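Progress report, Aim 2. The chain analyzed during this reporting quarter is listed below.
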Amino acid sequence: MTQLRLAIPADIASVYAICLATADAGQDAGAPGRQGELYGHLYAGPYLDLAARFAWVAEDGEGVCAYALATDDSSAFYARMEAAWLPPLRRQYQTAISPLDQGLLDRLHAPFTLDPRLADWPGHLHIDLLPRCQGRGLGAA
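Predicted structure tokens for the chain:
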């Protein structure tokens, strides 16, 4: 049986692993020598830290297998990311170890702001599911 629940700090490693395992258009983006944690730092960690009331996980008998991470105010969320989340990461990650990471590093060092095309939608979310959890209605739930 799969349980849906609010994420807790102990879920961070699982959430980061799911983020990496689904980061390449739903496929695994992990590769030898890659700084895979950058995906989690950019697209999962800030939600767990800055919008925890909108961070949900699905857990089955094997552990956390999916997440839904959201914010109800994208502009304010990105402002909090810029102020609190990104500065230490920008200091830590100055150069890419692998050429595969250059795009992520560029994204890390670029401002996070709301795309003007999305101004009519105040919030956003990320839903990612490992293959073992797909096709069971968890994304909809």
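The longest strand covers residues 63-71. The radius of gyration is 15 Å. These observations will guide the mutagenesis work planned for the next reporting period.
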